[in-house]
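Worked example (supplementary).
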Amino acid sequence: MDTLHFVQQPRPLPEGFLATLRQRFGERCSTAQPVRDHHGRDESPYPAMLPDVVVFAQSVDEVAWVARHCNDHGIALIPYGAGSSLEGHLLAVQGGVCLDLSGMNKILNVHAEDFTATVQAGVTRKQLNESLRETGLFFPIDPGADASLGGMSATRASGTNAVRYGTMRENVMSLKVVTADGRIIETANRARKSSSGYDLTRLFVGSEGTLGIIVEVTVRLYPQPEAVSAAVCNFPDLDSAVRSVIQIIQMGVPIARVEFMDVGAVRATNRYSHLTLRESPLLLFEFHGSPAGVREQAELVQQITGDLGGQDFDWAERPEDRNRLWTARHNAYFAGVQLRPGCRASTTDVCVPISRLAECVGETARELDAAPFPYTIVGHVGDGNFHVLMLLDPDSDAEWNESERLNHRLVERAIAMEGTCTGEHGVGLHKQVFMQAEHGADALDVMRALKTALDPRNTLNPGKMLPPSVA
Amino acid sequence: MDTLHFVQQPRPLPEGFLATLRQRFGERCSTAQPVRDHHGRDESPYPAMLPDVVVFAQSVDEVAWVARHCNDHGIALIPYGAGSSLEGHLLAVQGGVCLDLSGMNKILNVHAEDFTATVQAGVTRKQLNESLRETGLFFPIDPGADASLGGMSATRASGTNAVRYGTMRENVMSLKVVTADGRIIETANRARKSSSGYDLTRLFVGSEGTLGIIVEVTVRLYPQPEAVSAAVCNFPDLDSAVRSVIQIIQMGVPIARVEFMDVGAVRATNRYSHLTLRESPLLLFEFHGSPAGVREQAELVQQITGDLGGQDFDWAERPEDRNRLWTARHNAYFAGVQLRPGCRASTTDVCVPISRLAECVGETARELDAAPFPYTIVGHVGDGNFHVLMLLDPDSDAEWNESERLNHRLVERAIAMEGTCTGEHGVGLHKQVFMQAEHGADALDVMRALKTALDPRNTLNPGKMLPPSVA
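After joint prediction of all chains, the assembly is encoded as:
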């Protein structure tokens, strides 16, 4: 239960370790308090745990050099991108070296005919899309934050349009990775498919910096859709909304996004974004395709949602109307936080098979209604993934403990429904306590065997993802 | 170069090993010559290498028991599905136990609302699709042969509609796997996406039986398209055909299949399937969608191919016309083989970025034109994957050696173009010689470390995929 109280256990740096780093990196090696402060926290609710030193890398060879140096001395090494983790991935539980990759932000190549781009790990998704503007292509994964491609790969990130375009799992084609002992490997080539060897790409995607340091990412790109439109539809209850989505997918409608908002989220959004949406459970759609195609999709969706009790179906074809709706959805987090000014927010992230989604959200909402704090729920409903945003009094231990208790209940419920404790945020520190329940002891042992095989000295982001073995 | 001459190095079974197996499995444990003969070969050009014994498993617990028994005694264990490998995956290079999983052929569940099915490893793709007929859903991966889902997972198989639906990499959601020491793990749950833990699913997909024994497979299903149509279009040359496909994808047309056939393949197909296709390079399309959607796709494709020199665009909307075309494509292998009755066929499998495809096929064809045997080329052009079918005199060592030399040249060309030695058939015995050139020594070492971590006694399909370390 006590998932918030990890205690930092720093290990002393061996003599000469820092001096060697300083010699190699000069001013790009910092032990200044503000720099360490900045790198010892992320967007998670955890108190900061500072690294001993921060190194700003500018090349793959530099990363390899630092990895070797840390490995030789058994010193913890934490790769750092945009700092947008929600789960404590970046906290230096053993102190050690934080390796900031944000300066490795070059777009190395774009192969428009092959629908691929290769970027350094520090490139952010917005930077990549900006650079693609003239090509007619785009990179679809949008986790909300302007995260780095390296960090998004490391956490297997996704977001609102995974229902159509998949997650980082499907969209990373290849990685350049520095191993624990400082070797440089390519996990794959640029062939769209391959049956050659173990899938090293997918092994490092989602490994949270614990198996190797991602320094370059080759991703799949997609044609910018010729036409984009949006629609919004209210429902009397969650169940009819979810049943609509299931039927829409069964009909083969290639929806690009479909987002659920509960009454609380709609209310918060109306207030924050000055909208007048009907305050009942709501689905927000986006359609990508040809002009005729998006019209056909919207008509089908209107028909299906109407049959299942949907109300006020509103189709937004004009870019300004579409953008207003989707900007409001993007701001749902901030809108929620404004429901309780000065609050501290905690976010859940379970994902269940869509057939169980209404039940899972419903039971969760019933429990949350009894909580002493407000909450909102938004969901990537096409994937079965939803987030509860809990708005807590920052000075109340009782509210924190209750929010953790409710999250535990929620995760247990999701796992019982064949789901996962984290759909897109990753494990980090916060979800370790669920790993055995979700994967089973033997699968967890297999994961530990992989970790030991690739990082025998346990220098890569130690203390993350895999809970300590009880044996 | 001498990729065909692997020598079987059988290890003697320890005393009592067989007796214990017989006691456990009775008649489902066989050392009969015909049974061993049948299980010591596959569809590859290799001479058979027989296992010492074949066990027919009927449950996960039986598989776990056999794995433990083999692991305890350090005896090779080869999982066997439909026997349709093209690359020698099933040959018992150390003798040992062949574990036939074809009797584990139950469809365990279909969750239509979640678009998932869970099957035992011995279920074949046709069996699965037959059972789905009433659900309105289907499983798209079609490697040609009626392979088992376990084998398709183990080789990361794909086929003609990967361009739209992906490969086994994208379509396996979870696996039940028996580890080398006989533990049973689930690699994931039924959540559509997850950021929880290392991606064990993708680690076992494509591992060719060398890391664990796949006993159950959960796959993604798709709605049966409301409308399906086909089209065929001739081109003056390969380059204009490939440029058409690139432009079609750039325009966002969601083609379900697009297959290339060279002149030789068209000629063979005309003869074999009694068609009158124009004998020039050809693309065969399939469109899935709504009736209006497939019409729109076909019109766009007709326009693009016309602009790029395509001729005789012919749109087949009637099921009988469409089936005749696609059946002809499915029979391209047999049609090719008939060009030289009594021949022995050898098939290549490289995959390159589509921007390099025309160049790769062109250079390959020029070299093949000088060969002393006929050949045909077909390609999954949307993926950059193509197969050369070489029709060899079974009694001519010279022709075998020349075909191997040409395949080596082809693979080197593909790797130089950032491609892979195998797009969908797997490594098995035949492609090991290319692994270091394709992946590099360090990535290969990482793969070896994974193998050692999960199968320290090297009992699982030993001698496959990873070439022996030279160190």
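Two points are worth noting when inspecting this output. Chain B touches chain A through 98 residues (CB under 8 Å). Chain B has a mean pLDDT of 95.
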